[in-house]
């Protein structure tokens, strides 16, 4: 047992960053007084503000695809100044373990990955035998060779209701029920058709329900299409600041999202969330938090799941065979339950 701080180095995609809060909770359950920090990109950093048990985020934007040795040395100097006693390195890459080694963090825990002997001194094996990413990541928070629990603690994002109310007022969004829609995803194959989202949005706004379309700058065109179909009660709230989407998901009555980072954010906040899964397996990739509805095609698609960002056979039936009526019914049920 030690009170030296521990640093978590998570995967830097939004959904995976949310998953890492389960690891924080495992660590805090073992050593409640030990400070826990997370390494973060600028994009993901707002999430850390809402994670109970996280002391702070160490924010750095290392480039993808190259080593950037100068930036690694600068990061190592920052880590050394924090006097970490241990780091948990979740990514399997060699460069993910470099700065902790340069910083001389005494215990450097991770799976062997790219033959990282020396960079890591608490090397774990058997990663490929663990079926889900959460099992692989959270196992690093346990003593070596300890059996995994049947269930991991679920991620939590505690967003003050007052913050969400102020955000809603600043954006002139009124006080009635609203559904937040996240039509984006990494790769087009994971995106339910924008025309289907448009149909659901149009049906909801016709019943007096506001629709907020959220996402990054890459989703602006999708959002324009959906808002254009749904009319005055719909708003395009896409932008560069993830905090905007976090507050929208807290303020919303319900949410509908593809298998993307925002489905994890919504579920961890506790907003009733409809998750739409096509090429990916919900068992592997859905949030640990319960969803209001998990939507997958009811027809047999022989290439599913493929986990590919682009449909290899071009028909995209795993998403196109999910009719708008199913998502609309799930949204209406979530709204009714939230109202009760």
Report on the architecture of this protein:
Helix content is 36%, strand content 14%. The chain is of the alpha/beta class. The chain folds into two domains: 6-139, Rossmann fold (3-Layer(aba) Sandwich); 161-339, Rossmann fold (3-Layer(aba) Sandwich), CATH 3.40.50.2000. Helix 7 links the parallel strand 7 (178-182) and strand 8 (210-213). Helix 6 (161-170) packs across helix 9 (242-251) and helix 9 packs across helix 10 (261-269).
| N-C termini distance | 46 Å
Total number of beta strands:
12
| CATH classification class of the largest domain | Alpha Beta
- Principal-axes geometry comes out as globular
Order of helices and strands: EHEHEHEHEEHHEHEHEHEHEHEHH
The chain-level structural class is alpha/beta
**Average predicted confidence as pLDDT:** 95
CATH superfamily descriptor of the largest domain: Glycogen Phosphorylase B
What kind of sheet is the major sheet?
6 strands, parallel
Helix fraction, binned, reads 25-40%
What Rg do the Cα atoms give? 21 Å
For the largest sheet, list the strands in their spatial order. 3-2-1-4-5-6
């Amino acid at each position: 047992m030690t009170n030296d701080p521990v640093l978590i180095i998570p995967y830097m995609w939004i959904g995976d960053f949310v998953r890492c809060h389960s690891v924080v909770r495992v660590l805090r359950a073992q050593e409640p007084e030990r400070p826990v920090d997370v390494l973060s990109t600028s994009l993901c950093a707002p999430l850390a503000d809402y994670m109970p048990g996280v002391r702070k985020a160490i924010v750095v934007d290392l480039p993808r695809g190259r080593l950037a040795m100068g930036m690694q040395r600068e990061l190592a100097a920052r880590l050394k100044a924090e006097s970490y006693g241990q780091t948990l390195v979740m990514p399997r890459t060699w460069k993910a373990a470099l700065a902790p080694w340069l910083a001389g963090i005494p215990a450097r825990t991770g799976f062997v990955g790219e033959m990282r002997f020396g960079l890591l001194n608490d090397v774990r094996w058997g990663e490929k035998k663990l079926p889900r990413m959460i099992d692989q990541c959270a196992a690093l928070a346990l003593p070596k060779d300890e059996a995994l629990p049947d269930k991991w603690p679920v991620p939590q994002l505690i967003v003050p209701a007052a913050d969400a109310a102020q955000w809603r007022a600043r954006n002139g969004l009124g006080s009635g029920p609203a559904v937040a829609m996240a039509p984006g995803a990494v790769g087009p194959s994971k995106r339910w058709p924008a025309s289907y989202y448009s149909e659901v949005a149009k049906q909801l706004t016709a019943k007096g329900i506001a629709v907020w379309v959220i996402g990054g700058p890459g989703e602006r065109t999708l959002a324009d299409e959906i808002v254009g179909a749904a009319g005055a009660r719909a708003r395009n709230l896409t932008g560069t600041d993830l905090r905007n989407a976090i507050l929208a998901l807290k303020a919303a009555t319900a949410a509908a999202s593809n298998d993307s980072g925002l489905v994890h954010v919504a579920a961890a906040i506790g907003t009733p969330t409809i998750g739409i899964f096509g090429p990916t397996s919900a068992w592997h990739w859905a949030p640990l938090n319960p969803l209001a509805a998990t939507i997958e095609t009811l027809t047999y698609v022989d290439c599913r799941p493929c986990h590919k960002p682009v449909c290899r056979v071009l028909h995209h039936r795993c998403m196109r065979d999910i009719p708008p009526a199913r998502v609309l019914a799930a949204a209406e049920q979530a709204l009714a339950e939230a109202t009760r």
